[in-house]
């Protein structure tokens, strides 16, 4: 197949660009949309699995010595899975093969060491409680500071360094002023409403079929094959739809599926694994907590001249995707700012915790929060409004990032900035906030605007490929298969729109199929916000091939050169006889009729489409390259009101202007922006993971882990899409939208910082020490700090 | 495990089934009656995904013993479309959720619909955003950021109780999307 761009079809009334509801909207509201565990009633004799979880964060045990006698004596317990049952590899790690499915060394509290299969869930749970494991506890590392002290690392130091003056140290020494900061940034639980789930069964042909709530069916297939010692052509994985994922099912779905498949292998019966919420929280990885330490050099206006940033992430016990996540943190610490001399060094720490993993933004948010923290401190130090200092440092057209990539469309940053300042009435509200603060000693308001620049592509370049398989049947109905998974983000809706326009048919003629590894092989995870960019291009290319072949047939029938034909509204016609033209009926052909004709003329009505993102590369050793196809931009204004006695706050108003290119599906893109923002706000202001000293996760349910609810939603929430923003290098001129809006929520934290600062006495210029997450408690302590001038003075070298 | 016989009224129909006596209504709905519309989000009363109605009141099915539900009339999301106020088999709330794209992954949606329906029926008037916030305070949604959920519930109440009557055209969806 050709890798050149197919000629576009130009439908008269395109579906692309229309505000359409979600492809599964009707299923969602009637309860008819099935999720993986909803398929359980179809498997009458399914067994249920439950793990034996380690009470220790770090311990040794012998798999052979696991005593399951008492468990097997319980009515309904069928068997206990241990390492002895694994026909292939006892290993499920995605990148480094460093995760035992059945460990002899426990690496985090709650880790599964064995699995009990029962006729009922109750039996499996009782059985798991009765399994006797002899643990030999070992010392555990449970905090980042302990890990740094013990030099417990999962990666080497990852570095990006660039400088006008050659050397960051020299640039810092020469800077008119310097300051330093340290910030711990909390992790985040995914809390997808649908917990991890899989059902596996063994079929008559000796194949395993796995239903999995996975963002990455191909890797789930690979891991199942690895554990069972099979070739991948004997494992089929289907991801029907997910009840949320956010990165948490990119690799962490794999062991769930592996246990189900292994159980089915051993017993010959279908096996269902479904984590309940507590299992999910204690067994699966989270957003990485980070520790950032930095020094910044700046001039009297607040222009940044040097930034030296050290980042540590808490990777948990195994590598998972932590290295790529750290790279993305490095790539985003500059955010929208030109920093002439920059050194950022990132290192992933190994601790005895769940293996931290992908989560919307993939390290980008942590890097960006560190950068924005620095900017805010510089603004305070030079005594200028933060928004002015931010704008002063923006990239300009022609600038390159520290890793050498051209910041294409950098003009969008000031365009968004000034547009949003205007529509949000920023200056007038700033004055109103100051007035409010002057007359309210116990409540203070804060207003902040922050920008986002987010790089789109997998930074592991080879992952940027996708496939699609489009089938047209003789009755003109169409099936679309592609490699992307649906987790609520609306990917299938966008694919439906692209396919309908690609073939010029109506939406109801096209059916989006569940994602399966036997339709499109070797797919990448639906992640990095790239699902619709990659798969959309593949779907479009598949449709173009079919359309070209059908146009040949239609051309003969209508006596028109094929290239002059248009496909739209389920009809094919010469472009001069569009619908409404008096000759349209006579000189056009129905798509259904044409499909039949093509079949009779022995013309193939199916095609595979394939797409790879052009010209992306990154050299890790040099810290240089073009890891991203393009950048997505946006900005947000947030206004908060803080209670000085309690640290409680309300988000009064949010205004967002965000760049989604030419939106394929505006209703869906707005939903991504709103949802991403609120999820980011949760990360930065309410969600706090707490681990006990012994490594136990103390926050293991929504009762102790505070997610945003309706009550935290801003009272006024204005979202606009940047107009005139087509991205020519992406399908339909669109831009990715899944992750970038998450970081718009940094504006909430910065608004809180402004409000906290307003509690300080006029004379006290101590920087605001605001914890992250900036929970009411953290805000309270920050207020106490500025009130008493207790915050430690940073070294203001002069 | 000891199973006992349950006689329930669900979505207007009498059903009987056997289930362990300690099972919750949610377990019986999902594992005995194949009514999988009610979702299991947390299993302990934290998320609202399992919300159903008993005698018109929203309750958490994961915290309700199936045995106690025998005394009442149970209604789940599967029964929403058959409601008397439904036009063409589709409840105005369902229609509004679709138009506003108030469901992303949809996992929280059945529970939210059942809580919202109870609100609309009780208020029997156009509801305010604050009323919606309060009525749905126990329902978590991890995807949408809630704004469109509030929009959809208010919109549905306007369709049912407001001036607009039945002509809930696609305009509102177009406006949000434009
Ligand atoms: S499952 Fe019942 S409240 Fe979460
Ligand atoms: S739509 Fe996914 S949890 Fe609400």
TrEMBL record, chain A:
Keyword entries, A-Z: 2Fe-2S, FAD, Flavoprotein, Iron, Iron-sulfur, Metal-binding, Oxidoreductase
Q: Which Pfam families match?
A: Ald_Xan_dh_C (PF01315), MoCoBD_1 (PF02738), MoCoBD_2 (PF20256)
A molecular function annotated in GO for this UniProt entry is:
iron ion binding
Residue span(s) of domain Aldehyde oxidase/xanthine dehydrogenase a/b hammerhead: 30-139
Keyword Nucleotide-binding carried by entry: no
Q: Which residues cross the membrane?
A: none
Q: Supply the SUPFAM superfamilies for this chain.
A: CO dehydrogenase molybdoprotein N-domain-like, Molybdenum cofactor-binding domain
Q: Does the keyword DNA-binding apply?
A: no
Cofactor(s) essential for the protein: FAD; Mo-molybdopterin cytosine dinucleotide; [2Fe-2S] cluster; Mo-molybdopterin
Question: What does the similarity note say?
Answer: Belongs to the xanthine dehydrogenase family.
Q: What is this protein called?
A: Xanthine dehydrogenase
Species whose genome carries this gene = Plesiocystis pacifica SIR-1
Q: What taxonomic lineage is listed for the species of origin? A: Bacteria, Pseudomonadati, Myxococcota, Polyangia, Nannocystales
TrEMBL record, chain B:
Q: Which InterPro entries match?
A: 2Fe-2S-bd (IPR002888), 2Fe-2S-bd_dom_sf (IPR036884), 2Fe-2S_ferredoxin-like_sf (IPR036010), 2Fe-2S_ferredoxin-type (IPR001041), 2Fe2S_fd_BS (IPR006058), Beta-grasp_dom_sf (IPR012675), Diverse_Oxidoreductases (IPR051452)
Key word ATP-binding present: no
Q: Which Gene3D superfamilies match?
A: 3.10.20.30, [2Fe-2S]-binding domain
User: Is Metal-binding given among the entry's keywords?
Assistant: yes
- What keywords is this UniProt entry annotated with? 2Fe-2S, Iron, Iron-sulfur, Metal-binding, Oxidoreductase
Its domain of life reads Bacteria
Record-annotated 2Fe-2S ferredoxin-type domain positions: 4-80
One GO molecular-function entry:
oxidoreductase activity
Q: PANTHER family, from UniProt?
A: OXIDOREDUCTASE WITH IRON-SULFUR SUBUNIT (PTHR44379), XANTHINE DEHYDROGENASE IRON-SULFUR-BINDING SUBUNIT XDHC-RELATED (PTHR44379:SF8)
Name of the protein described by the UniProt record: 2Fe-2S ferredoxin-type domain-containing protein
